[in-house]
Amino acid sequence: MTSAAAPQTDAVILVGGKGTRLRPLTLSAPKPMLPTAGVPFLVHLLARIREAGIKHVVLGTSFKAEVFEEHFADGSDFGLEIEYVTESEPLGTGGGIRNVLPKLRGDNIMVFNGDVLGGTDLGAVLDTHVRNEADVTMHLVRVGDPRAFGCVPTDADGRVTAFLEKTQDPPTDQINAGCYVFRREIIEQIPAGRPVSVEREVFPALLTEGKRVFGHVDAAYWRDMGTPEDFVRGSADLVRGIAPSPALEGARGESLVHPSASIGPGALLIGGTVVGRGAEIGAGARLDGAVVFDGARIEAGAVIERTIIGFGVRVGPRALIRDGVIGDGADVGARCELLRGARVWPGVKLPDGGIRFSTDV
Ligand code: GTP
C-alpha cells in the first residue's frame, strides 16, 4: 500500500554503527553492506522504501562512511535520490537523526535502523501517523520473547504508554521494530552536536512531555540482523522466500548460487544457503544455512552449517564449521572442527586438524 503522504516523506537510514556483534566481518565492511542473499543488506531496505513511494533518502553514516557513497552514489540506479551526512564522531541513534536535519525536506520523516529485515507495509505505518496527527509513530512488532528488545505498551487508541528498554518483566509482546515516523519539529528539538540515544533519551522524554506518540502494531516478518545467528537466519529466510524483499526476483528455494560460482559433484546446498560470486564448492561438501561470500573456497567433503564464510576464505577438505563466523581471507585447515559461536579473525591460518572437538582424526 502506498500512502498519499509518501512522495513528500523523507526516509532517513541510520547506518553509522560499528556492528561489533558481527565482528570480524564488520572490521572490513559496515554491517548494512554485508552481502545478504546476493546483494548488500541495505539494497533490500532501499527497495522497500522505493516500493512504498518514498523517493528521497538520507543515509546517516559514520563508521566506514565512504563505502556507502561509493556503492549507491546519487541513488539513481536504485530509483531513488540518496544523500549522505557523516558524523565524524558517532552521535548515536538520536544524534544521527538530528544530524541529518539540514537535508530534510518534508514534514514527515520515516527513520529506519539500517540493520532490520522487515516485511511491514511502510505506507500503512505512514497512514497511521497521519491519521493520528502523531508527533512520532513507532512501528511495533509482536515477538515471542520481548525481553531482549525495547518493549512498548500502547492503550486502546494505540497511544504509547511506556518505553521499557530490555526489561525482564515485559507487560506486552510489542517491541520497538526500529522504524519510526517523526514530525519534523520533534527532530528539531533533539539536542545537536552530542551523542543522543533515541531509545534511551528521546522516546522517554517525549512521553514525559505528553507528546502524541503512537504505535503501529503488526506481526509482519521482522528480524534485527545484528548478531551472527540472526544474520544467518535472515539471509536463509530471504533465500527461501520466508522474508519478503522486492530486491529479489524469481523463484526462491533451498539455495541461491551466483552464476559465476562452481559447485562440485555431489555437493549439497540446503537450508537457504548462499554462494557468492566466484566461490568454489568442492565435491561432496554439505552446506546447510551457510552464507559464503565472494571468492571463498570450500573444499571436498567439508560441512558448513549456519555459518558465515568471509571473502576469499579457504575451508580445507572435511572440515566442519557449525554456528561460526570466519573472517575474510582466513584459512581453515583440513579436518578442523569449529563449533558453537567460533569466530576466526581475518587472515588467520589454522593448520590441518589443528582444532578438534573430538579425538578421532
Ligand atoms: P553493535 O555494535 O553490534 O551493537 O551494532 P551497531 O553499532 O550497528 O548498533 P545497533 O545495532 O544498536 O544500531 C542500530 C542501527 O543504528 C544500525 O543500523 C546502526 O548502523 C545505527 N547506528 C548505531 N549507532 C549509530 C550512530 O552513532 N550514528 C549513526 N548514524 N547510526 C548509528
From TrEMBL:
Keywords: Nucleotidyltransferase, Transferase. The keyword Nucleotidyltransferase applies. The keyword Nucleotidyltransferase applies. Residues 253-346 form the Mannose-1-phosphate guanyltransferase C-terminal domain. Signal peptide: none annotated. Coiled coil: none annotated. InterPro entries: GMPPB_C, Mannose-1P_guanyltransferase, NTP_transferase_dom, Nucleotide-diphossugar_trans. It holds the Pfam family NTP_transferase. Residues 11-238 form the Nucleotidyl transferase domain. Belongs to the transferase hexapeptide repeat family. This is Nucleoside-diphosphate-sugar pyrophosphorylase. It comes from Rhodococcus coprophilus. The lineage of its organism: Bacteria, Bacillati, Actinomycetota, Actinomycetes, Mycobacteriales.
